[in-house]
Design goal:
The complex is a heterodimer. Chain A is globular, with a radius of gyration of 21 Å. Helices cover 32% and strands 23% of the residues of chain A. The longest helix of chain A is centred in the middle third of the chain and has 18 residues. In chain A, the strands form 2 sheets. An 8-stranded mixed sheet of chain A has the order 7-8-9-3-10-11-13-12, with helices on both faces. In chain A, strands 1, 2, 4, 5 and 6 form a 5-stranded antiparallel sheet that branches. In chain A, helix 3 crosses helix 4, helix 3 packs parallel to helix 6 and helix 4 packs across helix 6. By secondary structure, chain A is α/β, with parallel strands linked by helices. Chain A has 2 domains: 249 residues, 3-Layer(aba) Sandwich (Rossmann fold), CATH 3.40.50.300; 70 residues, no CATH class. By secondary structure, chain B is an all-alpha fold. Chain B folds into 2 domains: 85 residues, no CATH class; 208 residues, MetI-like fold. The chains are: A alpha/beta, B mainly alpha. The interface between A and B is medium-sized, with 29 and 22 residues.
């Protein structure tokens, strides 16, 4: 089966003082219909820019090029802005990190939901309104009809994010990209929103790219995982494979940072990854992780080769057996 | 919205009362009106007689309330210089100035807002630079000089438009352009700044992510939020124009309220000056009240405040 989304060798450069910031450095992605891909990585690793590049929503000064960005077989880099706008919100939708500022303060949520539908469907306002009410109910908002007249500032953060989700679903997209949809919310609301997303995704058969730095979330919802570091995908594979046998030292490091109930001893120190992310301004040579890696060797100054751990599970490192951490990982997989 | 409107109206009323009392008081502080009225040759008895005749010897508060009561009934007093009731004197002239100011502000908005939007969409390009040059010129050129240049070009050389008077709509074209060009730069810069800020807002990205066409993103989602401070500015400028168009009215020999104010101040025409100050202040307060309402309509978050 042909994947719904295929990205090959995606590069995003941002001109800054002192040269180009190589924010995304040649990544490959593919998402099948109905599948969930989680992109994991720390702040500034390029995961948000990757999603914006796919949606063609990058800031104007950022430059994007890729060997291929194909959505359902359509090369979106060759689309005219108008055609791309028709695609956005209809076949591919996006949910953003900040529900507090992602809705326009001057219009009612009803207005903002309805305009999404009317932008892509030849239909009456009445029908769009019914659809909006239907979706608000679906995302768990009570008294949906009366909420349409509310302004964003009258809703809590959790409710606003539910509205954003409803908005992204208005046209039943085939792909939904959620960029850290719960980061700005209270911890108690985070789980609710994620479960809601996962549920809706299953129900509607959408593919989803979920961007997060929460590995607990990944373990629960992901079919596939891509771990990003400094603008590169350092490890990718089926979620079960990546969690069972993390093969890149960065992935193992990340997994050591999470406490696992029943596995991590009370009072035990959690792992940390020492050092800081390298600057991506100017040329980046060799493995970007080597300054923070426990297993770094002189060869790491050369670009790391792609290695295969198992079928569909690959990583970029000079040393295949360098790092295996099965102990903490089992707990997470059990929780899946 | 109703609560907000009532509250704003109450505040406007309060400001109006305070301003009216101050304007009433100010003229008494400036000089003794009885002495001014009596003229240079008057004796001490004459002055006392005048003082009693016009009631200047009563307590200030009584005089104020009396004056305000007459003012509300439309009796603005009598101008001894023009020998006319002030109400008759002012009404027509205020209309001329009001019209001139309104058309000029509207013209300024119509030109400045699209220009500001265009500059904001393409910052630091030739469009932006051109808009900047136009606005800096408008800000830097003195109105009287610009007015004279227009007269030389369009009235004297090309003979397209009349140079002075207020007899037809053609007479108003040049003065309107002069006033509008003076008001335009601030509106343009504020629109540009607001648009640049709003265009980088998260909700603009959301609007694009929904697949809305650029036109709709720009004018429905961005401009409405960027225009809010511009409304307040335009209101202030309009108020300023009513009292500040003296220079332009003088150059184009338009019998407006600005020119009348200038003349009555020079002649110590107390009643006229008072009436003008109060009317200007009332109009100013009213315009700001309307701008507040317009802003509340534009920005739902204001309505609760």
């Amino acid at each position: 089966m042909k994947p719904l989304l295929e990205v090959e060798d995606l590069v995003v450069d941002i001109p800054v003082a002192g040269g180009d910031l190589h924010a995304v450095r040649g990544i490959d992605l593919s998402v099948e219909k109905g599948e969930t891909l989680c992109i994991v990585g720390e702040s500034g690793c390029g995961k948000s820019l990757t999603s914006l590049a796919i949606m063609d929503l990058l800031p104007t000064k950022a430059r994007r090029h890729a060997a291929r960005i194909a959505f359902d077989g359509i090369e979106i880099q060759s689309l005219r802005p108008r055609q791309m706008a028709d695609m956005r919100g209809d076949r591919m939708a996006m949910i953003f990190q900040e529900p507090m500022t992602s809705l326009n303060p001057s219009y009612t949520i009803g207005n903002q939901l309805i305009e999404t539908y009317l932008a892509h469907r030849r239909t009456s306002t009445k029908e769009a309104r019914d659809r909006a009410i239907d979706l608000l109910e679906r995302v768990g908002i009570t008294a949906a009809a009366s909420r349409l007249a509310h302004y964003p500032h009258q809703l809590s953060g959790g409710l606003r994010q539910r509205v954003m989700i409803a908005m992204s679903l208005m046209c039943e997209p085939e792909l939904i990209i959620a960029d850290e949809p719960t980061t700005a919310l209270d911890v108690t609301i985070q789980a609710q929103i994620l479960l809601l997303l996962a549920e809706l995704q299953r129900e509607l058969g959408m593919a989803m790219i979920l961007i997060t730095h929460d590995l607990g979330v990944v373990a629960r919802v992901a079919d596939k995982v891509a771990v990003m570091y400094a603008g590169e995908i350092v490890e990718a594979g089926r979620a079960t494979d990546v969690f069972a046998s993390p093969s890149h030292p960065y992935t193992t490091g990340l997994l050591e940072c999470i406490p696992v109930p029943g596995k991590t001893a009370p009072g035990a120190r959690l792992g940390t990854i020492g050092g800081i992310v390298p600057s991506l301004v100017g040329d980046v040579a060799g493995c970007a992780f080597r300054d923070r890696c426990r297993f770094a060797a002189p060869t790491c100054a050369e670009p790391a080769p792609a290695q295969t751990a198992s079928v569909g599970h690959s990583y970029r490192c000079w040393f295949p057996e360098g790092a295996r951490m099965p102990s903490t990982v089992e707990g997470l997989v059990h929780g899946h | 919205m109703l609560y907000y409107s009532v509250k704003r109206f109450g505040l406007a009323l309060l400001v109006a009362v305070v301003v009216s009392f101050l304007s009433f008081q100010l003229l008494f502080l400036a000089s003794d009106p009885a002495i001014a009225l009596a003229g240079e040759a008057a004796t001490e008895e004459d002055i006392i007689a005048i003082r009693e005749f016009y009631g200047f010897d009563r307590p200030v508060l009584v005089q104020y309330i009396d004056w305000l009561g007459r003012f509300i009934r439309g009796d603005f007093g009598y101008s001894y210089y023009f020998n006319l009731p002030v109400s008759e004197l002012i009404l027509g002239r205020l209309g001329v100035t009001f019209q001139l100011g309104l058309v000029a502000v509207l013209l300024a908005i119509v030109v400045a807002v699209p220009l500001g939007v265009a500059a904001a969409i393409r910052p630091n390009t030739i469009i932006d630079r051109t808009a900047l040059v136009i606005s800096v010129l408008g800000q830097a050129m003195p109105s009287f000089w610009f007015a004279l240049v227009l007269i030389v070009v369009f009235s004297v050389n090309l003979r397209w438009l009349p140079a002075s008077g207020a007899d037809s709509w053609q007479h108003f074209i040049l003065p309107t352009i002069v006033i509008a060009y003076f008001a335009m730069p601030a509106i343009m810069r504020l629109t540009r700044g607001g648009m640049i800020e709003v265009l980088s807002a998260d909700y603009i990205r959301t609007a694009k992510a929904k697949g809305l066409r650029p036109f709709k993103v720009l004018f429905k989602h961005a401009l409405r939020n960027a225009i809010i401070p511009v409304v307040s500015l335009a209101a202030v400028q309009f108020g300023f124009m009513l009292s500040g168009s003296i220079v332009v009215e003088t150059i184009f020999a338009i019998d407006g309220a600005g020119q009348l104010a200038w003349e009555s101040i020079n002649r110590n025409d107390l009643a006229t000056v008072q009436a003008l100050i109060l009317l200007f202040a009332m109009i100013y307060v009213m315009i700001n009240f309307l701008a507040d309402l317009l802003n509340a309509w534009l920005d739902p978050r204001v309505r609760v405040a």
